[in-house]
Amino acid sequence: MNAPSSKSMSSLPQTDHPYKVMAVYKFAALPDVEALKGPLAEFCCGRAIKGTLILAPEGINGTVAGAPEAIDALADYLFVSGPFGARLAGAEVKYSFAETAPFLRMKVRVKPEIVTLRAPQVDPNRQVGTYVEPEDWNALIERNDVVLVDTRNDYEVGLGTFQRALDPHTSSFVEFKDYVEKHLDPNKDRKVAMFCTGGIRCEKASSYLLSQGFEEVFHLKGGILKYLEVVPEEQSRFAGECFVFDERVSVGHGLELGNATLCRACRHPLTEADRSHADFQEGISCPYCAGDVAKHQSAAERQRQMDLARQRGLSHMGDAALTDAERRRQQKKAQAERSRRANKG
């Protein structure tokens, strides 16, 4: 058995970057998670891999980054040679690349669920909806008899989503059950298609819908990230950027670094328009936390410490990575402007 790899990874434009990023999840029976935690953490830390991996009796979920050879070794450990045996065979794995380290530290956590829904009747190991390959997704979601639902949280949807997708306006995944109860009806909504960032949330959501009597439930295999990786931009039905849970903040087509940044006070992702708002103050406040004085005071002190560190030529924890990411965004913006002027002339 071989470790899974991304079939189209060689086509990504960032393969010359020094950090390889692996996003992985798999619903699988892991009753021995406590015994697995220590050796997995030791393996990752010994190879300078950073990120977060969540273990639960229902499986594994997480994103990590490191040198390409370290990530390749981890893939072998998880899927071939390590203590997991064959239990993670067929895991959903996506690779991308980054110029700077996306994570600051390594964490292996044991939790009751790898994605929290708090619905005991749901078991993706037993029942899930129909997987739809990214190449077939456009044809499905353009059908008039299909209800398209974004299972992500509101701040993620705000950065980008598929055309005509319904936004549940949830702040956490556990609220998805309430949305289904109030807005979806198995007697009317005969065909429901769902998607999320990497596939894990909509896989669990599809299992939940089936448990509630919905007959035909579909979900995007590999999530938005796989779609952005393999579907050409000119054929894409995804508008905007995809939020990711690391210091890259967002990615676009080809999994290129996006333009979004994070508010350091409330952690809400910010678009260019958000950063032009009167309530935005770099490192201190944004339109989404304008009235939270306590957050602003804490963020202002943090920003002061960062500024002092930069004046002394030092990095403030992971802020060197943030600075590099912002520099690359500005370079990307300048390049786009040069291309626009050249095409116009």
From TrEMBL:
Catalyzes oxygen-dependent 5-hydroxyuridine (ho5U) modification at position 34 in tRNAs. Residues 300-310, 324-345 have a biased composition (Basic and acidic residues). Its EC number is 1.14.-.-. Transmembrane segments: none annotated. PROSITE patterns: RHODANESE_3. Keywords: Oxidoreductase, tRNA processing. Belongs to the TrhO family. Gene3D superfamilies: 3.30.70.100, Rhodanese-like domain. Residues 300-345 are annotated as: Disordered. The keyword Oxidoreductase applies. The keyword 4Fe-4S does not apply. It catalyses: uridine(34) in tRNA + AH2 + O2 = 5-hydroxyuridine(34) in tRNA + A + H2O. This is tRNA uridine(34) hydroxylase. The gene is trhO. GO terms for biological process: tRNA modification. One of its GO terms (molecular function) is oxidoreductase activity, acting on paired donors, with incorporation or reduction of molecular oxygen. It comes from the Bacteria. It comes from Devosia subaequoris. InterPro entries: Rhodanese-like_dom, Rhodanese-like_dom_sf, TrhO, TRHO_N. Residues 142-236 form the Rhodanese domain.
